[in-house]
Structure formats: C-alpha cells, structure tokens
Specification:
The complex is a heterodimer of chains A (563) and B (251). Chain A is α+β, with helices and mostly antiparallel strands and 563 residues long. Chain A is built from 19 helices and 20 strands. Chain B is 28% helix and 27% strand. The chains are: A alpha+beta (563), B alpha/beta (251). At the A-B interface, helix 1, strand 14, helix 13, strand 17 and helix 14 of A face helix 2, strand 11 and helix 5 of B. Strand 17 of chain A pairs antiparallel with strand 11 of chain B. Bound molecules: flavin-adenine dinucleotide (2 copies).
C-alpha cells in the first residue's frame, strides 16, 4: 500500500509543481505577471489606486486620468476589475492609523498579533480572484474573543474601519479592504472546542479551516454539512458569514439549518453569546440568523456551533453526459424520485465549462475521451448500505438510459475515480482563473428558465467572450461565468446590467450563495424590495452606528452617507 | 488467444487504514473496498491487447468470499468477457493462490496470464512469480510496457529496474505482472456496466480445483507504524544549534 501511494505521489508531484493553484492556499505565491502597480500619481495618493492591468492601459487611460484628478481631491478609488467600473469614495469620517493606535494594538495583541510587513499585507489586501485590492497598512491577528472585543471597542471609539477576514476565498470582494480598513484576521482562532459524539454537535472557533474540520470529523465518523471547492483555505467563520452553500446543500440544507449557535462580537465590542448547542430553542428572536450571511457587516463571528451528520460508508459517484438542458432537468426530477434519500449532490456543467477545464487544469481526466457532449451531470449518492445503494443507482441509471435522458456515463469504481470526477466540477473556478479575465455571476433562477439566460448571453456576446455555465443544479443555482482573454469594459457593458435585469425579471436572486460584498452592494435592489433594504439598513445602523464593520459592502453605501 | 487476468479486492487505496483493536489485522468493516490498482492495470492491458486484435477473449479471475463478485462485476464492466469466481476464505497466502491459478490455467488454457505486481493490502509481490514457477512458464515482472508478436508467439516487455529499463522477450504462454506506469485504466461506462450484468461468472470451489488451503505462514500481530513526530519551527539559529547539540547530539 505504502509503495503504491508513494509512487502515485511521485507521479503527481511534477503536476503539482505547475498546479499550485489547485489549492487556493497557494495563491499568495502565484501573483500573475499580468498586472503592475500604477506609478504615475503622486506618492500621497498612490495607496488609493489599487490595481491596474497592463492590457487595459490603452483604452482606459482617459478614464483613469479623469479619476486621477478626482483622487487628488476626494481619494476615490477606481477599480478596473470590479463589477462595472464603480467609483466609491473613502468615507472621510474614518480615521487613519496613528502610531498611538499601533502601540495600543501591540499592547493588547503583542508584537506577533500586529502585522505590518509589506509582503503579507499585499497578500491579504488582494482577493482570491486578484480582482480587488485594498491598501490596508495593518492586519491584526487576535487569538481570543476578548482580544477581538478589545480591538473592535477601540476601533469603534476611534472610528477606524475594519474588514473581518477569514480564508480570503470570497468571490465578491467582501474579504479585502476597499481602502485602508484595518484587516482583522480570524486565522489564529482555530481551536476545536468540543464535539459531542452522540448528537454530532461540533463547537469550534471561527478560524478553523473547513478542510481541517472535515478531517477531524472524519476521524470521529461524522461529516461537515457543507463542502466546497475552497475547503483547503476557507474558514467556518467565513462560511457562516457568507452563508456558503456548496456541494451538499441539496442533502444537508443551508447553514441557517445546521448552525445551532454563534458567538459574535459587535462593533462596540459587546460579546454576544448565542453559542447554543440545542436543536430546539424558541426563546425570543433567533438572532444568530442575522449574522449568518451578513458578510462581516454586523459583527465578527468568533465561535460556531454546528450540527454534523454521521458519515455514511456507501458513496457512489457517476458522471453523466446529456444531449440537452431539458434532459438534465428531467434527470434531476428522476434522481429526486428514484434516488430519493440517498441523493447527496447533483451538479451540472456545460460543454464550454468542460472544454475549459480540460484545457486549463493540470491532471484532469476526461471520462469521455472519444466524444464531447453538450451537458454533463455529476450525481453523488450517500447511504448506509452499499448493495442497496448500488441497486438503486443502477436501476435509476438503466431507466434514464432507456428513456434517453443520458447519452453516456461512467460510474466511479473506486475513490480515486470518484475524486477525479469531482475534480472536474470543483476545478472550474480555478480553470477560469487560468484562462484570463472572468466576470462571475452567482444566480438563483427557477431551474426551467436557468439556461435561457446562458443562451441569450451567448447571442449577446457573440464571439467576443466565452460563456461558461455550471453550478448546483439541484439547488437551482447557476454559476454564469464570462471568460475573456483580458478584462474589457466593452464586454462588461454587454453583460451588466442585462444579467441583473434578466434575473430580476425572472424572480431570481443576483447572489445565490457568494454574497454581495463590494461587487454587488449597489445591486441589492434587483432582488430585494426597497422596504426590505431599508429595514436592513436600520438593523445595520442599530448594530453598528458608526458603520466601521466592513464598510462599502453588502448594502448600497449611499444609505449611510451622512446628510 | 485467450488472456487470463487475476484480480483482487482490497481496501480502497484512498482509505485511511486502521488496525483492528485486537491487532489481528486491518479493519475492513464499513470500509470502501475496490479492485487492487495493479490488478486494474493488468486488466486494462489485457483489454487493450484484445482491442488491438491480438487476443480473442479476456477472462477475469478472483479468489475470495462472495463479496469478490462485486470486484469481478467491475472487471466485467471494464470490458472482460467473462469471469471466474473461486469461492474461498479471504485470507489466503500467495502460494495457495498460485496453485489455484495454475489449476485454472489447466482448465482454461490461456496464452497469457496477467497479474498485478502486488496487492496493496499485504504488498507480498509473490503470486505472479510463484504461478510462473508452478506452470514452468517464462515470467516478466513489473512490466511498464508490453508488446505482443502474434506470429512469433513472443511478448516483449520493458521493466523498470534500478538505473534504467530492462527489456525481456518471453515465449508465449507466459506470466506478466504489471507496474504502475504501464497504462491508465479506463472508467466503467454505463453501457458496459449494464452489459456486464448479463456476462457469465463461472464458480469453482477449492475441491473442484483440487487445491487445499494450508499455509506455512501465521500472522502473529498487526500493528501501526510508529507515528512520525511533527516538526517544530525554531525562532533562531542559536536555538537550532542548541537543539542539535543537546537534544539530537549530532554536533
Ligand atoms: C394538540 C396540540 C399539539 C401540539 N403539538 C405541537 C408540537 O408537536 N410541536 C410544536 O412546536 N407545537 C405544538 N403545539 C403548539 C403549536 O405552537 C401550535 O399548534 C401551532 O404551531 C400554532 O399555530 P396556530 O395557527 O394555532 O397559532 P395560534 O395558536 O393562533 O398562535 C400562536 C402564536 O402565533 C401568533 N400568530 C398566529 N398566526 C400568526 C400570523 N399569521 N402572523 C403572526 N403571528 C401569528 C399568535 O399571535 C401567537 O403568538 C401543539 C398544540 C396542540 C394544541
Ligand atoms: C474555488 C472556490 C470555490 C467556491 N465554491 C463555493 C461554493 O460552492 N459555494 C459557496 O457558497 N461559496 C463558494 N465559494 C466562495 C465562498 O463564499 C467562500 O469560499 C467561503 O465561504 C468564504 O470563507 P472565507 O473564510 O474564505 O471568508 P473570506 O473570503 O475571508 O470572507 C468572506 C466574507 O465573510 C466575512 N468574514 C470572514 N470571516 C468572518 C468572521 N469570522 N466574522 C465575520 N465576518 C467574516 C468577510 O468580511 C467577507 O465579507 C468558493 C470560492 C472559491 C475560491
């Protein structure tokens, strides 16, 4: 066994050398060569300029120089990569870091908890997609809830803006500063506090990396109720704060169901202990739900209590090909009926997504080397009896083949084959990153209509960009990605606001699971009514009157400008 | 020509192995079992030889309890034409397996017997060599390339040895055991999985083959390898020198 493993490792080693980004952890070492800092403006405004992409220089120069003048006056920021070139202003009432602030923080956290070295700051200022970049000069790394409380209390009194940061894998620019906000990293709060083997309730600190929790639970015979491609870097606190959905939502439901309790620190330093470990607790308002999915705008999550299901031993994975989208939908319905309680994932990707993965991702194996298909579906079953599950799956597959819903398919015969099927689906975000620029939209749309948007988008963009569609079909969640060799505002203007208007018209959501962050803070009205947004703003003002927590994100900044 | 391939069912290579509390062996209850990866490679090679027109039939053989039928089904789903299941207890040592395989060769008369170079559960790496000895057939072990010449009735194989590649020519019939780099086994496709359901699996008992289970080996105890201590990060060169001097005592 050892030899087999060692040889396999050896064989894949060379791949990994070129495959750094297979784990998002790696991103820090792979900053691409395609961007450079903009060095024309005066030193004083340099920090506010963010990123500039070489390829864009020619066409965007007039715009940039226009903004340059503004920068001098109002320190605004121009983001070439952001969802439509948005200009947001740094709130003038926020303070900037002084040397007294630094010594205060060093006093509470010690030297090691106060990070100022440029290289580290560069990494934590930049988001996973390398699309958003802040200019923070300070990252704090608390180790206890008391330290988080002291930090926030102080920042609140000094009106210093703060960005809570977990694994920094968020896809909407929410986890990095927009300007010079202080980064409060939760990474060092990574202890598992308790695990109850009977009820399956896990209590841990917010900075635990998802994959570590998965590994811990695996040893105990349990699984996390969520799993996603970024598991090697993302943290449970970040998952809770974005209400991450992921690959198993179909089976285990959303975090609003499985999170039983939270410990949260409010902007003024108050520690809210809502760390219940009870499945049922109807005493008053269930406030933890406010923090699930609030993207660090209402408080910093420091501990999480979560209900975990037992690990079942029989897992099957099949990778199927369908001739058209209608077949995928029929297959979904059939899978729900025939696989019923053992169905644990139903993911889809289209021809263009497959093509992209095969082209750009090292080590991917095409299950159908001899033919390309229009659509692919990955189905996973999880149950407790191998022979029973297999029988069910075979009957379902046979039936679907006879009814012409599937044109081809493979069933993984071992865990390695199952992992390579998952690798295709989970590797799409990474392949997109390697292919060049990407405009990402994470949409909930009634499933029957879902693919119409993709087709309309292809017609709109014609040959100028590649439209790639994949997602959690079982949850009605489409990941629409427009891949271009480089970022191009002409293409962007073809996409937005069309994609939001289309989604709104079909009663969809413009953010199914990634959140709004900086990218879509101004787009919330496409999905939520004015009254709802107003109430959200009132809640934000109630919990964070000075607005220091993750400013400019989630809700339109205009709601908070003092008049 | 007929090719016979021996396949074994083992704990899936991606599963973390746990030793049973009584140290009698490794835990296989509630553990994912799969085809031994080297056997999968052997079967893949047999299928490729058949597909290139150099063989007429691929027969998969497995020796073990009823659950081994599942592994044979996988073999049939990959493309084997038929299968033979020899009903036997799970723990059998290489010499007995080699005797069983010899008995089956006498019945089936294949022109080539393919095996994985070893099974990843016990890593014994003996069965192929032993059966070649019993059959008095030439053997090519750890093959990383196999070329058949039908006319001359020879198989040319490459084997990875220290410092290079050794090329052997074997007169057929012969025994070949397969190494990791020989090929990448195919997926079982849906149509083939369905077809496999109606492919025949012939059953033999040990009595049918006139083989007795007796072993000269006895497993005394199975234990986990000692845990590797995790490393520590030191803060200074001085500390390192101190540790090397006083803890490791190497300088
Ligand atoms: C025989 C029996 C068995 C029960 N078993 C269970 C059980 O197994 N589990 C369990 O959880 N509960 C149980 N209950 C209690 C349970 O809370 C109620 O049965 C049910 O959920 C309340 O529904 P209702 O329409 O009768 O609401 P009501 O009794 O009319 O009202 C309950 C509360 O909700 C408010 N309310 C009602 N409708 C609205 C509305 N449309 N908008 C805003 N507020 C509203 C009311 O002001 C009140 O505060 C049981 C009750 C009985 C009599
Ligand atoms: C390859 C890849 C695949 C992905 N797949 C999925 C998927 O399938 N489903 C899905 O839903 N998402 C997916 N995502 C995005 C997903 O939202 C993040 O991966 C994850 O949930 C964020 O966790 P994080 O620890 O990285 O948080 P970060 O990126 O650090 O932060 C995300 C947001 O949460 C806030 N935040 C972080 N930690 C805390 C805390 N402790 N307290 C308060 N606020 C906090 C931040 O301020 C920010 O607004 C994927 C991302 C990548 C890169």
């Amino acid at each position: 066994m050892e030899e087999w493993k060692a040889t396999c490792r050896l064989l894949t080693h060379c791949k990994h050398l070129f495959h750094g980004r297979s784990t998002p952890n790696f991103q820090r070492f792979c900053s691409s060569g395609c961007r450079c800092h903009f060095n024309q403006p005066s030193e004083s405004i340099k920090p506010y300029i963010g990123y500039y992409q070489q390829e864009l220089k020619s066409f965007s120069r007039p715009l940039v120089s226009l903004c340059m003048n503004q920068w001098n006056r109002c320190r605004s920021q121009y983001r070439l990569f952001a969802s439509q070139a948005t200009i947001i202003q740094r709130r003038p009432d926020f303070s900037t870091i002084s040397s007294e602030d630094l010594s205060y923080f060093k006093n509470i956290l010690g030297e090691i908890g106060v990070v100022q070295d440029e290289e580290t700051l560069d990494a934590v200022n930049t988001d996973w997609m390398r699309k958003y970049k802040g200019t923070s000069k300070l990252m704090l790394q608390p180790r206890t809830v008391e330290e988080v409380s002291q930090i926030l209390k102080y920042c609140n009194s000094r009106c210093l803006a703060v960005v809570p940061q977990g694994g920094n894998t968020g896809l909407v620019g929410g986890s990095v500063p927009a300007f010079d906000e202080v980064i409060v990293s939760i990474s060092h709060m990574n202890k598992i506090i308790s695990f109850d083997k009977v009820s399956g309730i896990l209590v841990c600190e917010a900075g635990c990396i998802l994959e570590n929790l998965i590994a811990f639970l695996d040893n105990e015979g349990f699984v996390m109720p969520l799993d996603l491609g970024a598991k090697g870097s993302c943290q449970i606190g970040g998952n809770v704060s974005t209400n991450a959905g992921g690959l198993r939502l179909l089976r285990y439901g959303s975090l609003h169901g499985s999170v039983l309790g939270l410990e949260v620190v409010l902007a003024n330093g108050t520690v809210l202990d809502m760390l219940g470990t009870l499945r049922k607790d109807n005493t008053g308002y269930d406030l933890k739900h406010l923090f699930i999915g609030s993207e660090g705008s209402l408080g910093i999550v420091t501990k999480v209590s979560i209900l975990t299901p037992p690990k079942l031993s029989s897992v099957n994975v099949c990778f199927l090909a369908c001739k058209d989208y209608a077949s995928c939908l029929k297959l979904l319905l059939e899978a729900k009926r025939k696989l019923g309680e053992i169905l644990s994932a139903f993911e889809f990707l289209d021809h263009d997504a497959m093509d992209l993965v095969l082209k750009h991702l090292e080590g991917v194996r095409n299950p159908f080397p001899f033919s390309m298909h229009n659509f692919y579906v990955l189905i996973e079953t999880t149950g407790s009896s191998e022979s029973y599950d297999r029988e069910k799956l075979d009957a379902f597959l046979l039936n679907s083949m006879e009814n012409d819903l599937i044109s081809d398919g493979v069933v993984a015969q071992d865990i390695t084959q199952a992992s390579s099927c998952w690798h295709i689906r989970e590797g799409i975000p990474e392949a997109l990153m390697k292919a060049g620029g990407v405009y990402k939209y994470d949409l909930s749309i009634p499933v029957e209509k879902m693919y119409d948007l993709v087709e309309e988008m292809r017609v709109r963009l014609d040959a100028s960009a590649k439209v790639v569609a994949y997602g959690h079909l079982g949850d009605g969640n489409l990941h629409l990605n427009i891949s271009t060799p480089q970022y191009d505002d002409n293409i962007l203007s073809q996409i937005e606001p069309f994609v939001y208007e289309w989604t709104s018209k079909h009663k969809g959501s413009i953010s199914a699971e990634h959140g709004l962050g900086l990218m879509k803070a101004n787009k919330i009205h496409y999905t939520k009514s004015p009254e709802t947004v107003q109430l959200m703003a009132s809640i934000k003002k109630l919990l964070d009157p000075s607005g220091i927590l993750n400013p400019y994100k989630v809700l339109p900044p205009s709601l908070f400008t003092k008049s | 020509m007929k090719i016979m391939v021996a396949i074994k069912r083992v704990v899936d290579y991606a599963v973390k192995i746990r030793v049973k509390p009584d140290k009698s062996g490794v835990e296989t209850k509630n553990v994912k079992m799969s085809m031994n990866p080297f056997c999968e490679i052997a079967l893949e090679e047999a299928l490729r030889i058949k597909e290139s027109g150099l063989a007429s039939e691929v027969v998969a053989v497995s020796v073990g309890p009823t659950q081994f039928l599942e592994t044979l089904r996988t073999g049939l789903a990959m493309g084997a034409d038929r299968a033979i299941h020899v009903e036997a207890p799970e723990k059998i040592y290489p010499l007995t397996i080699a005797k069983i395989l010899k008995a089956l060769v006498d019945v089936e008369k294949p022109g080539l017997l393919l095996l994985g170079k070893q099974a990843i559960d016990n890593d014994q790496n003996q069965t192929g060599q032993m059966v070649a000895g019993l059959l008095k057939w030439p053997q090519g072990t750890f093959a990383s390339k196999v070329v058949l010449d039908k006319e001359k009735q020879v198989a040319t194989i490459d084997r990875e040895v220290d410092g290079g590649i050794e090329t052997l020519c074997l007169d057929l019939p012969a025994v070949i055991t397969t190494d990791l780099r020989l090929n990448q086994p195919r997926y079982a496709t849906l149509p083939n999985i369905m077809k496999a359901k109606s492919k025949p699996i012939k059953k033999f008992t040990l009595q049918d083959l006139n083989v007795e289970i007796k072993s000269d080996l006895e497993v005394v105890e199975v234990t986990e390898p000692p845990k590797r201590k995790s490393g520590v990060i030191l803060s200074s060169v001085d500390e390192l020198i101190d540790k090397l001097k006083n803890e490791a005592r190497v300088i």
